[in-house]
Hints:
The chain is 27% helix and 21% strand. With 253 residues, it is of the alpha+beta class. Strands 2, 3, 6, 7 and 8 form a 5-stranded antiparallel sheet that branches. A hairpin with a 2-residue loop joins strand 6 and strand 7 (202-203). Helix 1 packs antiparallel against helix 4. The structure holds the ligand Nc1nc2c(c(=O)[nH]1)N[C@H]1C(S)=C(S)[C@@H](COP(=O)(O)O)O[C@H]1N2 and molybdenum atom (MO). Ligand MTE binds next to strand 2. Residues 99-242 form the Oxidoreductase molybdopterin-binding domain. InterPro entries: OxRdtase_Mopterin-bd_dom, OxRdtase_Mopterin-bd_sf.
Amino acid sequence: MSDKNEIIKEATQLINKQLTQEGRRRFLKQGLTLGGIAMLTGCDISDSATVESSLGKISRFNDRIQAWLFNGSQLAPVYPESMIDANFPFNAFYGEDEAPDINGDSYRLELAGLITDKRPWTLAQLHQMAQVSQVTRHICVEGWSAIGKWGGVPFALFLKGIGADLRAKYVSFKCADDYYTSIDMATALHPQTLIALTWDGKVLPRKYGYPMKLRIPTKLGYKNPKHIQVIEVTNRYPGGYWEDQGYNWFGGS
Ligand SMILES: Nc1nc2c(c(=O)[nH]1)N[C@H]1C(S)=C(S)[C@@H](COP(=O)(O)O)O[C@H]1N2
Ligand SMILES: [Mo]
């Protein structure tokens, strides 16, 4: 993970490369905000490619600040069962009828990248591991949040069991519906990050990610992949479906 000096060095380089003298003065006064970016960069605001690339660099820089601030042992809030939302929303980049319809018997979870034991997993094998459950709030950037209960296998135990390289930077997920996303290793190892096999005490319903999803209460909704088919441990930045369209990669909640 990046240390403080590396981040400060990177910030200095970014500021020197991208900002005019006036911009640099404003930066020192106001801090690096997205709102001020048009004034800060030396580029013409009508040159959208340059603006996009500056914003992209700042978003990637913010990822590193967030990763550095992330405390791997600080827990997301948990709630009493009485607060569970009866009408938990469905969300995906398509409608509810189009959610993948996966056969649990033939399903195999594939493993790739920096992992010692890459044998695929059946659903039954996942159910044989020790199960926990938690009631947490799911927050979607589209403007809703809801409390739900998910049960399954702590992801850290799974990663250790398969001999994943725990010093690798990223864990990435490919889903049955062409969705993909990725998380930092500190979040993967967080005690509340779960391979979720149940929702509200029932087999995980199709619309919520059957046969399994990753439930990460320290991250926004789009960082919680449903219908996972492949898990890869890697040092190469994997991006994500929404992240590659400009959503912030770290996506903490
Ligand atoms: N495979 C897959 N996972 C996904 C998505 C998706 O479209 N496909 N959408 C994400 C978004 S933006 C949200 S808010 C949550 C919604 O999860 P839910 O349907 O369980 O509420 O799933 C996330 N994971
Ligand atoms: Mo979302």
